[in-house]
Structure formats: C-alpha cells, structure tokens
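Give me the fold.
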Amino acid sequence: MAFQSQIRSVDDLVGPAGRLEALLNTGVDDPPFSALVTHPHPPSGGTMHTKAVYHAMKAFSSFGIPVLRFNFRGTGRSEGVHDEGKGEVDDTRAALGWLSGTFAKPILFAGFSFGANVGLRACCGDPRVAGLIGLGVPVRAAGRDYTYNFLPSCTQPKLFLLGDHDEFAPRHVMEGIFASAAEPKELRWVANADHFFQGVPADRTSKLDRMNEEMRDWLATHFAVETPQ
C-alpha cells in the first residue's frame, strides 16, 4: 500500500509571543528529514493555508517527509501581534526547535514570499537546517523593502524559485541577489508565472503544479529523497 500522509494539529508549538497555531503532515516511520514551510505576509492575508504554502508542503510530503506549517504571531489562532518580520524570525526558530526536538532529523526549509525572507534569515547558518528553498522571494512589495545581505555567508544548499513575471522581484534585481549568495545555489524561473505562481494574461493556467515539480526535482537531486512505496 502506498504511503499516505495524515494531518494533525500541533498544540505544543510556543514562540516568544505565545502559542503558535500549527499543523503537521505526518511522514514515513523513519524519515531522512523533517520539513518546515512558512507563509506570506500576514496583514496581506497570508496564512499557512495559502495555496503556494500548501503546494510546497505537498512537495515535501510526496517523499514521506513530515512537514510542519504554522501561523506567524497574530495570524489565525496564533498569539501575539504582527512584528514586521523581526518577531517572525523568532517564530521560525521556535518551529525549528519543535521539529528538531520531535524528529531529531536534519530539516529542510521552504518559505513563500514574506515567509521566504523571514525563514531564510532564521535558517541560514543554523546547523539543524540541511537545505533551503525560497519561493517567490520578494524584493519590494507594497512599499516594503526586503534585504538579503546575509546570503554571502549562507552556505547551505539553496534553491530560489520564482515566476518569470514576479511583480515583487524584477528579474535583474533577483539575479543580482542570487549572484551575491554563497554556493551551493540554484535559481529557477517558472515560465508565465506571477508572484503567486498563477498565470499571466497570455497564459492564465495555474503554475503551482510546476512549482511543486521544480521543488521535487531539486530535492531528489540534492538530497536523494525518493517517493515511498
């Protein structure tokens, strides 16, 4: 019988601002990794249920890896208030601690948009984190500027995956950020996709499945993960 993930609520994830609402998609009995996925900008409607976050979870789960998603402080039923990214870095570190304590396995990270920036800041240099995926990595969105001056010292394997029509990450700017990042690294563009991995006017079909496929290809190549039977 093929592996099928189950989903359960996590009641003991606590960050500096209080309890964080979280869900765990279970994995195989002895997974090689655990995984964490973080969500986009909360005041703009981002939650752990955002479509790109869900599809990122599915990419990890397809390999039998247990995946933790949570709502940042002040989002959903998570305690605290939004902290413009500063406190959310600490929330991410709390989630890393929960995964490490629960599974004692190397952690793979993926974050989307605001969650990519926050999560990369939290995970870069953390010895518990084996690999990093930034989805829709933002540069400037709704008047908010995002910086990546930590990437030159971030030596974990990294995938940057964006739509080639991402309105919050002009290609030439993102390529400059990518050039500054330490190896190993890879930058991939999803054709005809916007920031949310939706289609552009010339091609309205969703590109979320393509995002998922690119994630799975990178994970299989760099971490030798396989689909459980």
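The mean pLDDT is 97.
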